[in-house]
Write a structure and sequence with these properties.
The chain has 2 domains: about 160 residues, Rossmann fold (3-Layer(aba) Sandwich); about 210 residues, FAD/NAD(P)-binding domain (3-Layer(bba) Sandwich). The chain is of the alpha/beta class. It starts with 6 loop residues before the first strand and ends in a 23-residue tail after the last strand. Strand 16 and strand 17 form a beta hairpin. It is globular. Bound molecules: NADP nicotinamide-adenine-dinucleotide phosphate. The site of NADP nicotinamide-adenine-dinucleotide phosphate (NAP) has 24 residues, from helix 3.
Length: about 400
């Protein structure tokens, strides 16, 4: 898409210091925020700041080779880790901590992470859900994979499972996931036989504090019961899990941008079906919050493109567009990156990864997805993106705006 004639990529630009939303709206008829949800929701517990307590964005960034997290050094010289959350990210993290070196073959995990994980002493990974097996947010394929790990066995306490007949009320995907949990529970008595690691599912368990002398040593957990609204209610009974590593996988949030209304509760921009207002739109996790995969978010993007095409009307195309943006960025001394510059960076990074070990994850910017038909009237699509490795916070991902009136 970035190679098509009506798309212009302007990299290494941060909304805020380099250009404000107000300025972009003054230059373009439509501005679309596709900034994702790169930040962890805070755990907010006593002891959350101790070394050894890590958010999933940092941990996933570390093993995927994100330059901001290359120096994370998660403590893997400990016997046990606690993974908080019952979503797919928690599953990803539990799996990464449990795989053997051979199981990473062919993956694009960062070389530094692979090396550290190979030396890991972790033998038990606790996966904590504050509610029960019928309330997990894990999908069946991802959960089923835990049953096929070379050197790790999942364990579920049969007492945590509701009566089997209750599964009939679940939607089919959820029923499949719960069936995996039942299989793990059935095999739990002999789980671990011949395997060095276990993945222990702790259901009805909400973390209340992290303790340790200068670093995480144990997680204090309160047992819960489901309330009438299916929410978790603390029972007052607590227990401790000895663990030197705590990874919180409780969801992400979009970073606020000055001048853009923000819904703090949902961790996303305040919007109605992708429309923020006044020529400003949002897509992806910035629109819907941190749920769903590309398959869920892509149709939302098409819908917003169609809305823009309708809303622009005849008055569009009178703004300065690229010339105005270039003048403004130049005046501010911004060191912008064109798409061909970006390709050179990409080639250099890929070359750095040759020789068997991947240097970093594949860049989503190399995706070949085609623009929606409704976007065809746009003469110019401007993509603003921080260049890889250059700026710490990926504040602004994509904006597109027509350069000339639709249909001209
Ligand atoms: P998620 O699916 O929303 O799961 C978050 C989990 O954290 C839930 O179990 C939630 O429990 C729990 N949680 C939230 N606040 C908590 C707290 N204060 N204390 C304890 N637990 C808490 O989020 P995610 O795992 O980050 O995934 C985000 C999206 O990416 C999802 O749509 C996911 O399916 C997708 N994803 C997909 C894949 C894949 O397909 N391979 C991989 C990774 C991510 P409650 O339900 O009780 O709130």
């Amino acid at each position: 898409m970035a190679l098509s004639e009506n798309v212009r990529f302007v990299g290494n630009v941060t909304v805020g210091p380099d250009v404000s939303i107000e300025e972009l709206l003054g230059l373009y008829d439509a501005v679309i925020l596709a900034t994702g949800a790169p930040e962890d929701r805070p755990l907010g517990l006593p002891g959350s700041g101790l070394p050894g307590v890590i958010g999933s964005a940092a941990f996933v960034g570390w093993y995927n080779g994100h330059p901001d997290f290359a120096g994370l050094k998660p403590p893997l010289d400990v016997a046990a880790a606690a993974v908080i959350g019952n979503g797919n990210v928690a599953l990803d993290v539990a799996r990464i901590l449990s795989k053997t070196r051979a199981e990473f073959d062919g993956s694009d995990i960062a070389a530094h992470a692979l090396e550290a994980l190979e030396r890991s002493s972790i033998r038990t990974v606790h996966v904590l859900g504050r509610r029960g097996p019928h309330q997990i947010a894990m999908t069946p394929k991802e959960l089923g994979e835990l049953g096929h790990l070379e050197d790790a066995a999942p364990r579920v306490d049969p007492a945590d499972l509701p009566p089997a007949e209750a599964d009939a009320l679940l939607e089919p995907g959820m029923r499949k996931s719960v069936t995996h949990l039942r299989d793990f529970a059935a095999a739990s008595a002999g789980a671990g036989a011949g395997k060095r690691k276990t993945i222990d599912f702790d259901f009805f368990a909400v973390p209340v504090a992290i303790e340790g002398d200068g670093k995480a040593a144990r997680l204090i957990v309160e047992r819960t019961a489901l309330g009438p609204d299916l929410g978790a209610r603390g029972t007052g009974e607590t227990y401790a899990i000895d663990c030197g590593l705590v990874i919180s996988c409780i969801g992400y949030k979009t970073l606020p941008i000055e001048g853009v209304p923000y819904d703090a509760e949902r961790g996303r921009f305040a919007n109605r079906d992708g429309v923020i207002g006044g020529g400003l739109y949002c897509v992806g996790w910035a629109r819907r919050g941190p749920t769903g995969t590309i398959g869920t978010n892509r149709p939302d993007g098409f819908e917003v493109a169609e809305k823009i095409a309708v809303e622009l009307g005849d008055g569009a195309g009178m703004k300065q567009g690229p010339a105005g943006l270039d003048a403004l960025l130049q005046a501010r001394g911004a060191d912008t990156v064109t798409f061909s510059d970006w390709q050179r960076i990409e080639a250099a990074e890929a070359a750095g990864g040759k020789g068997g070990e991947p240097a970093r994850e594949a860049s989503p910017a190399s995706s070949t997805c085609s623009p929606p038909s409704a976007a065809e009237p746009f003469r110019t699509v401007l993509a603003l993106q921080p260049a890889p490795s250059y700026r710490p916070a990926p504040v602004f991902r994509l904006a597109f705006a027509p350069d000339a009136p639709v249909g001209e």
